[in-house]
Q: What sequence folds into this?
């Protein structure tokens, strides 16, 4: 069964629900109950144990009593991972470059981190005007229709402006990235904006995504995987998927908290 953000999350929720009901189980039992391989269960348990949700030793799994969908510690962990991913971005962008930045929340964090160098940033994220920036940095909003609640600029005006420009780099967040479907998003209105940014990039496309987006596919196609030069993610990302990305020639950077 193909992975998606939804079914991976649902499977991990079921693992935790099982543990909340039974306190202790085994990898073999979980695999049988969820109709997946033991390798898949071990992959899920690796993530859940690193997040402090379960204890897992010698095939025996016990709960730490925190449900995946309500634990503040999980949300805090993801926020910390996003900050770490954003902090890695400046190392891959040269001073005085021009870059397109899409409206993802992770890219918004990265704009703040890019305050260490002078740049020209062209973005459809209205909130970019709130960011910390270098004194010599220019931030240009694309214009277009404002889509709430995300406050992103989309539509014909946005695309027409982008088509008059070229960037050295594009920094793009996504809702999924995998071998089969490449870069994908849940927002149909942003699909063509993101695609145009990537198409108008002269040097490198940098994708930023936490582990929840790696190896999964969302609703709308943005670009083939071959369009991505650098992927910045975290150490929780699916190892086999990361290996496949590297075999495809993508430079993959993995950060920790």
A:
């Amino acid at each position: 069964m193909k992975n998606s953000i939804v079914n991976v999350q649902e499977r991990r929720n079921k693992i935790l629900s099982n543990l909340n009901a039974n306190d202790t189980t085994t990898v073999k039992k979980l695999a049988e109950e969820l109709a997946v391989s033991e390798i898949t269960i071990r992959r899920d348990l690796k993530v859940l144990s690193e997040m402090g949700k379960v204890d897992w030793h010698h095939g025996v799994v016990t709960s730490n009593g925190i449900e995946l969908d309500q634990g503040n510690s999980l949300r805090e962990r993801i926020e910390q991972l996003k900050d770490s991913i954003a902090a890695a971005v400046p190392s891959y962008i040269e001073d005085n470059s021009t870059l397109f930045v899409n409206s993802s929340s992770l890219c918004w964090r990265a704009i703040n981190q890019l305050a260490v160098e002078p740049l020209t940033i062209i973005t459809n994220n209205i909130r970019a005007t709130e960011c910390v920036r270098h004194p010599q940095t220019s931030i240009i909003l694309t214009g277009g229709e404002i889509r709430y609640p995300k406050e992103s600029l989309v539509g014909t005006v946005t695309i027409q402006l982008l088509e008059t420009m070229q960037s050295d780099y594009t920094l793009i967040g996504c809702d999924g990235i995998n071998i089969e479907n490449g870069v994908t998003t849940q927002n149909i209105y942003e699909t063509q904006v993101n695609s145009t940014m990537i198409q108008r990039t002269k040097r490198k496309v940098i994708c930023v995504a936490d582990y929840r987006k790696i190896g999964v596919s969302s609703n709308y196609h943005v670009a083939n995987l071959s369009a991505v030069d650098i992927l910045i993610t975290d150490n929780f990302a699916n190892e086999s998927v990361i290996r496949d990305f590297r075999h495809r020639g993508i430079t993959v950077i993995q950060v920790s908290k």
Residues 229 and 249 are 8 Å apart (CA to CA).
